[in-house]
Amino acid sequence: MDLSNKGKAVAVLNSIETGEQQAISYVNPDKYIQHNLAVGDGLAGFGAVLQALPEGSAKVNVKRAFTDGDYVFTHTDYNFFGPKVGFDVFRFEDGLIVEHWDNLAENTGPNPSNRTQLDGPTEVSDLDKTKENKALVTDFVDTILMKGDFAQLGRFIDDGDADYLQHNTAIADGVTGLGKALDEMAKQGIKMVYTENHIVLGEGNFVLSISEGSLGGEHVSFYDLFRIKNNKIVEHWDTIESIPAKNAWKNNNGKFGF
What we know:
InterPro entries: NTF2-like_dom_sf. The chain has 258 residues and is an alpha+beta fold. 22% of the residues lie in helices and 35% in strands.
């Protein structure tokens, strides 16, 4: 049976744990561009990382997978040199993977609302609203996360705690939980700054925003996954990963480059 691009991406991720060889045929060896800065370019770089893993240690459980044109993006529970949560983005050409991005974070315990980094709905719906939902998230990232115009927050999120479910490890549900977290960060002198939104990908009610900025003065990448319902953001998952200094990069492709 011919696999969809989504099925191929999931198979490649699963092969990290299983070692299944068929999956490597879904990657174009002549064009594969790697944006994980800790991994060498091409299939050789990917293979070197797999060989460095302690035997039998890798675990992969893909929780969510979505397709947007030539892109597939996934949300995965990993054991990859330790427990991690990751978003992966794959770009396809002619049915083969030619480019890969990811963003990884340590897998920690439940947040103040007892939600984990990965639990919650997984089913895609509202496919006819994909374009509309992507536009909503693009506006939210620009207005709220980049410009900090919190007076506009009600356009995007309703104000009841049950109206906005939060999976960030340090933040409770609702606008009140978000406000408390931001106030606490301000007290500690920690600034979270979104400087550039690189791409917004979506399928139906799920939209992923990939941005660049800083957290506490450290250069980071923000991957924010939102669930949309009735033209409002109702749920949020994320990973924030530090971007190393360029002299530590294992490839020269950069963290973004969409």
